[in-house]
Every structure is written in C-alpha cells, then in structure tokens.
Write a structure and sequence with these properties.
There is one protein chain. This protein is α/β, with parallel strands linked by helices and 531 residues long. The chain contains 19 helices and 15 strands. Helices cover 49% and strands 14% of the residues. Helix 10 links the parallel strand 11 and strand 12. It is elongated and about 90 Å long. The structure holds 5'-O-[(L-methionyl)-sulphamoyl]adenosine (MSP). The site of 5'-O-[(L-methionyl)-sulphamoyl]adenosine has 19 residues, from strand 1, helix 1, helix 7 and strand 11.
Length: 531
C-alpha cells in the first residue's frame, strides 16, 4: 500500500527506434501537468518517464543505422531526454530498460513468476508484428495484416508462456471492484469485453534474436519486450527491493497514462503479471487518444510528422501545452492544425486570459498608485465573481481526479470569461472620478480573481502563470493550492511591478482572415519574440 499523500504518475516508456514526435510530447506534457497539479496540492509526487530500448523493432532500427544496439539506443534515448529538458518536464526519474537496475528487476519478476508456476516452456507458432511488438492470432488478422495495419510475420520458435488464461476471472473482478481502473469509461468497456471473450496464454520469451533481457537460467531466450518494458514502472522504484523507501511509498502507481493503442498491454497483461506475482496492480490506466495532422494519420511515410521542438519554438511552450490539453477532451482523438493552434492562442490566451490580466494590471498601475487596491464593501456582482473563482478549486480538483484535463481548463476559462464581462459591466475606468472607492473594490475583486486563476493555471502553463503571479507580487510560498483562499488573498497596499504582456497575439497581415495567413503569422511571431 503506497503512502497516503504519495502520488505516482508514469508515461509509457518510448521506443528508441525513431526520433520523438508529437505523440510522445503529448503524453509527456499531459503527465507533467498531472504531476505539477498533484505537487501544488501538497502531494509527494513521483513522476517517471523513460525509454524502451530492447526488442526486435529497436534491434532492426539499430542495424538499419549500421550501429551496435547499445550505441544506437544511447543516442536515441538522449534525444528523448533532450526533449524532456526542452519541454521543461518535471520528471523525477528517467528509466532506460538497458540499465542494470532494470534488468535485475525484470529477472526477479521472472523468477517470481516461475516460482509461482505461472510460466512454462512450449513452442510459439503464430503471427508476430515487429512494429507493434505483438503476437496475433490468425483470427485477428485483417487482409493478412495486424488489426493495426502493421505487417506480420510467421514465427515458430521455442518460447516460454505465461498462464494468462488463468487470470481472466481475477481481471474481471479487478475491473468490477475498481470501476475507475480503466479511464475513460468507453475504453473500459472495450477491455472488459475483450477479457470476457476469453484469454490465451501469452508467449513471454523470444529465441530468434538476442537484444533483450536474458531469461534467468535459460539465456537462449530473451524476455518478451512488453514484459520487460512494463516492469519499468516498478524497477524505477527499486523493485525487487519491496522494503525500500521508494517502493513502499509509491507502489501501487496512481495512474499509468498511455495511448489507446497500448491499452491492452497495460490493462490486461500488466495487472495479470502483477497478480500472478502476488503484487498489487496499479490504481488506474488512463488511455488517451491519437492526434492526426490536418485530418491525416501522422506517419513518417506521409512526411507529416509534427516535430514538438518546432511547435514550441514557433508558438511557445505554454501555448503548445494549452492547445494540446484544451483542444480535445483527454481520452478522445484530436486533429492538429496550425489554424486551430493560432485560434486558441489568439482567442483564449491573448484575447481572453492575456487581455484580462493586462487591462486590470494596467488600470491598477495607473489609478491605484501601482498598489493592490483596498476594497470597500462588496456588492452582489463582486461577490458573484469572487465566489465563482473560489468555487473553481473544487471543480478543477474534481476534473483532475479523473484526468479530465480539458474540463479543468474549461472551468477556469469560464471564470476568465465571467471576469471579462464583469470588467465591461463595472467599467472601473469610468469610476475613477465618480466613485474611486467603488473602483478600488472592483479592481481588487479582479486582481484577486486573477490570482486564483493563475494559481490554477500553473500546472498547465507554468511559465505564463508564474509571470502573472510575479506581477501580483504573490510570494513563492503562497503559490500552492491551499493558498487559494485565506492567508493567500492579496494584501491591499502591496506594491506591484509594472505590468508586461504575457500572451502574445499572432500578428496577421492586413485584410486576411485569421485562418489564411497562419504560416506568415507564425513567422511574424517568431521574429517578434526572438528580437
Ligand atoms: N514502448 C511502448 C510503450 C511501453 S510502456 C511500458 C510504446 N512506445 S511508443 O514510442 O511507440 O509510443 C509511446 C506513446 O506514444 C504511446 O502511448 C502512443 O499512444 C503515443 N503516440 C504515438 N503516436 C501518437 C499520436 N499520433 N497521437 C497521440 N499519441 C500517440 O508504445
């Protein structure tokens, strides 16, 4: 049982057969947001990512690059670490399956399964897809291909098998006992009906190539790459040392975030391995959807791969995070387009959030001597705004408890919209002469609402939110979620620095519709931010 305030979130470990792309960046950014939010809420967080370096697919990529597998994986794995640094990801650890700490753990889990009579020797004769690193039954093939469209090859070799069949009932009981074990719910139903349909024993070793963890006491075999890879979630906590601090604190994991394509491995095989070894399964598997690019499947052969570094450099890191997490409900598929990206940036960030902050802070600077104004008695509209911003915490927490990232952002942006309407309705600029006390009250209500909003957007847009909180002179220790109310409320009289814009607007050439001039606009932004 993990410690009560502990929170452990993981990304899949990425295959090092190729450079990182938007799909990898997406999962990692979502997990980073989940981890940051848990930290802001006072949890002890462990956030793990890493690389999956064994198996036939990686071996093949290394040989195509005319490199030894280890040298090749060293190089590609470094590109994933580099991407994490550039995206300012707050992972606490980065695991590579070629590390000794991992190999030791995989072999220990294997021995445990053997000791419990969960593994036996046989022969595998069937289809295998190197691209998916997955075995397929004849009945699953569609037009001679894997259901994923990946090519398959016939494999016949001695192999160890895991008694997966025996775990059908315990798995169904697990899904029943933990209704949120698989999220979103639609995915849960898919998995449940797959398991209900019956399970076959699973081949868990390979003999026709050598790039993997050797099977203990039978080094002709290497451990099947998925059994090897899944174990990373525990080896990074020091498994097989179950008495160690990390394992005791953080296992079972709170959530493994994965793409929908690898849900079965995580929601069926992984808990079965764990139950069979007498270990606790994770608390949740969350499966997110896939991105297409302007309506097309993203693939190297189509030449439409989206480079996350290019996105960040063109639009900004916080903007990219916001777009990816807001554009589609987490769990659904989404379509990336530059037009949609620019629309979100200009409308939500520049016009709504940015403009709110900018106009309120400049009014305070100009009219309140650059200090947090002293509120007078609050009226109904002031209270309504402050109540709505105070109520956000519970709404955002509820959404985040089920990884509903876009729902959390929608709730926050609803209050941003309400605050903008409140500015228009109260027209504080017109109160300057007629009723300065009332003006101070309105600006105070707005400033404190912005503070709450910025506290909540920290997990999503860390840099922009920090800059807003700096402009409100919010001390570092008052930036956690328990400071939303009470001691955290702005103190009248506090001096504020001069306001500076946080969310740039993409400049569009005259006379063009917003969506027409995306490329030019992106370039304009690039040159305006880099000068
Ligand atoms: N190595 C395995 C995972 C092992 S975890 C124990 C693997 N690696 S991967 O590099 O191929 O994929 C990693 C993740 O990227 C998957 O969750 C996958 O869903 C995600 N994506 C790959 N392309 C994607 C999109 N186009 N859109 C969104 N995510 C996608 O699988």
């Amino acid at each position: 049982m993990s410690a009560a305030d502990a929170f452990y979130v993981t990304t899949p470990i990425y295959y090092v057969n190729d450079a990182p792309h938007i799909g990898h960046a997406y999962t990692t950014l979502a997990c980073d947001t989940i981890a940051r939010f848990a930290r802001l809420g006072g949890r002890r967080v462990r956030f793990l990512t890493g690389t999956d370096e064994h198996g036939q697919k990686v071996e093949k990529a290394a040989s195509e690059a005319k490199m030894a597998p280890q040298a090749f994986t060293d190089e590609v794995s470094e590109r994933f670490r580099d991407l994490a640094r550039r995206m300012r990801i707050t992972n606490d650890d980065f695991i590579r399956t070629t590390e000794p700490r991992h190999r030791i753990g995989v072999q220990a889990l294997w021995r445990e399964l053997v000791a419990r009579d969960q593994i036996y020797l046989g022969t595998y004769a069937g289809w295998y897809s190197v691209r998916d690193e997955s075995f397929y039954a004849e009945s699953e093939l569609i037009d001679g291909k894997a259901p994923t469209g990946a090519p398959v090859e016939w494999v016949e070799e001695p192999s160890y098998f895991f008694r997966l069949r025996a775990w059908q009932q315990p798995l169904l009981e697990l899904y029943e006992a933990q209704p949120d074990f698989i999220l979103p719910a639609s995915r849960r139903n898919e998995v449940v009906s797959f398991v209900r349909g019956g399970l076959q024993d699973l081949s868990v070793s390979r003999t026709s190539f050598a790039w993997g963890v050797p099977v203990p006491d039978d080094p002709e075999h290497v451990v099947y790459v998925w059994l090897d890879a899944l174990t990373n979630y525990m080896t990074a906590l020091g498994y097989p040392d179950r008495d160690g601090e990390a394992y005791r604190t953080f296992w079972p994991a709170d959530v493994h975030v994965v793409g929908k394509d690898i849900l079965r491995f995580h929601a069926v095989f992984w808990p079965a391995f764990l139950l069979a070894a007498g270990l606790e399964p994770p608390r949740r598997i969350f499966a997110h959807g896939w991105w297409t690019n302007e309506g097309q499947k993203i693939s190297k052969s189509l030449g439409n791969v989206i480079d996350p570094i290019e996105l960040i450099e063109t639009y900004g890191l916080d903007q990219t995070r916001y777009f990816l997490l807001r554009e589609v409900p987490f769990g659904n598929d989404g379509d990336f387009s530059r037009a949609a990206m620019v629309r979100r940036m200009n409308r939500d960030l520049a016009n709504d959030y940015g403009n709110l902050v900018q106009r309120v802070l400049s009014m305070i600077q100009r009219n309140c001597d650059g200090r947090v104004p002293e509120p007078d008695e609050l009226g109904a509209p002031d209270r309504a705004l402050l109540d709505a911003s105070a109520a956000l915490l519970a709404r955002v927490r509820d959404a985040m408890a089920v990884q509903a990232l876009s729902r959390a952002l929608e709730a926050i942006f609803e209050v941003i919209g309400a605050a903008n309407r409140y500015v228009d309705a109260q027209a504080p600029w017109a109160l300057r002469k007629s009723d300065p006390k009332r003006m101070a009250t309105v600006l105070f209500a707005l400033a404190d609402t912005i503070r709450r909003i910025a506290l909540l957007t920290q997990a999503f847009m860390p840099d922009a939110s920090a800059r807003i909180l700096d402009q409100l002179a919010v001390p570092d220790e008052a930036r956690t979620l328990d400071c939303l109310d009470g001691a955290g409320v702005l103190r009248p009289g506090t001096r504020l620095p001069s306001p500076v814009g946080v969310f740039p607007r993409l400049i569009q050439p005259q006379g063009h519709a917003e969506t027409d001039a995306i490329g030019a606009a992106a370039l304009a932004l690039k040159s305006s931010t880099s000068s």
